[in-house]
Each structure stands twice: as structure tokens, then as C-alpha cells.
Batch of 2 targets.
Target 1
Amino acid sequence: MIVLFLACQGDKDPDIETATYHQDIAPIMASNCISCHREGGSGPFSLESYENVKALSGMIEDSVVNRRMPPFHANNSGECQDFSESPWLSDDEVSKISYWAQNDTPEGEYKEISLPSFEEEPFDTTHSVTFAPYEASFATSSDDYRCFIVDPQVEQESYLTGFEVLPSNRAIAHHMILYAPLGEQALQQAYALDAADPGIGYSCYGGPGVDNRMIAPWAPGSDQWFYPTDTGVRMATGQMLILQMHYSNASEETLDSTTVNLNIQETIGTELSTDFYVNSDIEIPPNKNEHVETLKRSVRSFSGLDVPLLVHAIGPHLHKLGISSSAKIIRGNNEECMIDVPHYDFNWQRVYTFEEPIVLQPEDKLEIECVFDSSDIANTTYWGDGTNDEMCLMTVFASPL
């Protein structure tokens, strides 16, 4: 497969066969990898030196050729929308890494590389949430999903415009999601889950286990995330939140207490809503390498609004059987790709922000496709929150026009 890949890509850049570490590979690492893979970064190893990259060259090649790394899995080649803040590698960059790894990893002549600054501007914190130190458990799995009920102390209805995530143990902090329970009943259900689970918080693989709207997603690479200018997500008076942490077994030190700083404003120009486009009627038979589930609905039916929507960001969500996900817009006889995630990875769930927001009319149709691999599963799998259940949905951040 790699040979064919190189044959197809090799004629795009005549310098591929002369690629060296200092001239070609180091700049790619600096721009796309070192933000995580550096001393003090969130990655489990450093890619800041020739020796380290050479030693890991086989793994790096496999990861970039199969698009597992960098962990931005939406196709950002220009064939299906353009997404902001993307570490997506071009085909030429992937080809260079692959050829270099297969051909003795030449070092080349030393050249000083200008590294981007990894220091972020001081965050304007108005509210903050955290939880008491938690000892992540990897006794039965290499991943630990834990939910903590937190109080940002919102005194009046207002809007979340940005957030900053500061894990105390970056080595194991894999991602964070803030959820707002939908109503008092959902909040009480979360309290019940917390009370029934020994220790701090409660286990929450796949989600918080109660009706919710997702308001803040984070994955390592940047501590800060902001909604589009003059927009925000509504926070009700007295709003309680559920903070989900995903920990990976990447360090012997397993204690963490993550702080999430919030910027909450009383007024904004446009309220963002979080809509879930859900295909809950899924039935995945066992022993299938590739089972496809699709759903097509009008924008009006899933948004509940009879006005156009301006879509700012979108994110797919499946569980561990999910291998790919996509969405397309159908306008009459025309179809437009909205997002394509050909290699879905449950461990790297993201919300992808469009470079240019997309306008959806109420009568437009949105079709989502989820593909699952149940080849190692003995029984039929249905929709659900549990470890052995599945999901097929898109989270859509939008504002009415």
C-alpha cells in the first residue's frame, strides 16, 4: 500500500527523493507535531531531535500514511470544506516522511529551525471549575473516562465565549469535554451516578449518561479555545456542568486535577446553539468488517427552526466500533460534502471549525453516514451510552440567521 501511495504522489514534488531530516522533515515536525511532542508537552515522547525522530521513523511513517497523526482526522485537503487550526499534512509532506523513513533516514546538513511559540496569551478568566485530585485507573483498560459535576457559579444568564484547559498531569490528559445537563432531572440523574460510584466523580465512557448539550470540547495541542467573534453558548442562571476527562495510560503518575478557566460574558452578538443530529435507530450486525448506517433529514426537522442556520463547527461522535463518519448537504439535486472523517478515532474526538461558516436552509437535507467494524463482535450492537453500545451523530454548532 505504501509503495502504491508513493508512486501516486512522487511526481508532485521532485525533492522527495532527496529529503533529509534538517532540510525537510524537521520543518514538518516543528509545524505540526512538536506542539504536543516536546519536553513538557502532552505527547508521550519528544520529536525535537534527529535522534528521536530517526528512532521512531517507522512508527511516524505508519501514523502519517494512515492519517492517524497528526490527530486531525477530518479531510482538510480542500476536497470537503476547509477547517481552521488544522495540523493536516499535505500529500507531499506525507510522501517526504514516508520516503525518508524507508531510505536510511538521512540527517543532512544542520539548519536552524524556527520553532513557533507555544506560549499562549494570558486567558481572561471570569469563572473557573476544577475537581479534587483523581487517581486515574487503568486496571482493566488503557483508558479511563471520568465525569465530575462542577459549579462555575453563574449568577445570571450569560454566555460562554472561550475556555482554557489546564491539566495538572498532561501526560495522561487525553481530552476534556464540558456538558450542560438538560434540566433538573438530568442533573439529579448525574448526582445519582456520582453517588453510586465510589470515589470522586463517576465512570462515563461514551458520555455523561444523562441528557445534555456539549458546550466545550478540548484535545491536547492548545490550552485555549474560543468561539467565533461575538458569539457564545448560553449559560443559565445557576448552571451546573459535567466535566468529562479522558485519561490514557501514558505515565506511571496517574493523579490529575484539571482546571478549566471560562470566559463568560453577559451579552454577545449571536448565541450559538449546540444541536445533535442523531441517528439513534442503528443496528450493527456481528462479524462485519464494514457496516454502514445512514440518516437523511431536513435541517428544519433537527433544528426545530424555520429559519436558515449559519453552521460554524461540526463534530462526529461514534464509539469504538466506528471507523469512519461523514456528512453531506443535499440542496435539491445538488450535493455538497460537509465533513469527511475517513479514519475515525474514538480517542481523538474533535469539533472541527469551518474556515467559512456554512449556510443551511430549512428545506436543505443533511445526510450523515457512520461506518462500523464489528468483525470481532459476537452479537448485534444497538444505540446506547454503554461501553458495548454504539452511537452515530454529528454535533453542530450553529446560529439562526
Target 2
Amino acid sequence: MPSFSTLSPWLHRSLVDIRQDLLDLFCENAYQEGNFTLSSGQLSSYYINGKQVTLHPGGAVAVGRLLLDRLPLSIPAVAGLTLGADPMVMAVSLVAAYNDRSITPLIIRKTAKGHGTRAYIEGLELPEGTPIAVLEDVVTTGRSALQAVERLQEAGYQVSHIFALVDRQQGGRELYRECGLIFESLYDLSELQSHWKKRSIKGF
């Protein structure tokens, strides 16, 4: 994995290598085993804190590069539900700018702003019908990202894609399929856990 002291490797390594580097970062910083209660209310023997990756300087660059590579050219904006998606939408937008591509980042509040415009969506106002992709760090049941989709649709935007860093394989993919949404994740739970166990055996 590239050194934390410089961003250069994260900027210039191939996407194949960057994907592996990001997986290492997830196993080192974001994945834990124990007894946890998830935001969905479910109990779990493991926990994935995606913000330990997306708020890491190199991790943010890696996330931006990998997600931008998957984002269709026809989609000019990305959005996500606060707080998990906030660093992701900015990472994609900034990496896009350095690649001569304009991607507008939007942040969606869980509750409407209590003052001013009382809006749910923060960011530049885009033309009605603009295609927007929703980003999520970790998908479990899929309800969080679907809430973001619904807010965007209520505002007059079109949403066809959801991109996540990790799919916990607990119903999110199936929910999105039922809603007619295209879903992609960089990793699924089985790959993350398998890599974490290998690293544990080797003493990383």
C-alpha cells in the first residue's frame, strides 16, 4: 500500500493497483470484529467504518479515481446522504476536475434545513431532469441510499445508478433491483472479510 506521507502513489498508480491499495486500507483502518449495532438497528459481529477510508487523504483520492472510472459520461453530478457520502461526492468531483471533467457534488440532508430555504439538498441547483448518481460508503439494507434517491427524484432529478464502496450483501442489491436502479460496489463483504483474514494470518 502506498505510504501515508505522500499522495503521489495514490494519484499515479494504475486503477487495478489502486483498488488493491484501497482494499488494504479498508482492512487496516475500517474493518473491525466484535459486537455492534448498525444504523439499521441490526446487530452485527463486525463493523465497517467507511469514513476511516474516505476521510484518509490517499483513500479519498483512490475513492475518487475508482468511482469516476465507473461513472457514465452521461451523468454530470453525484449525490449522497450525509454524513457517509459527503467526502465521497467531493472526492469524485475533485478528481474529475483534475481529469477535465465537470461533476457537480450534492449533499442530501436527512431532515430539511431548519432555516433559510429549508431544503434537503445542498449544492448547486441543476436543471430539472439532470441525471445524478447516488454514492454510499457501506450498503446494508439499502434504505439510506434509497432515501437519497427519493429526495433527488422529488426535486425533479433523474437517478438510475447507485455506487457503493462496500456491499454488505444483506438485501441492498436486491432492493435496488426491485426499484429499477443499477447498483455497483467496489467490494462486497465476502472479498473484504477474506482479505482481512489473510492479512491477520500474515500478521499485518
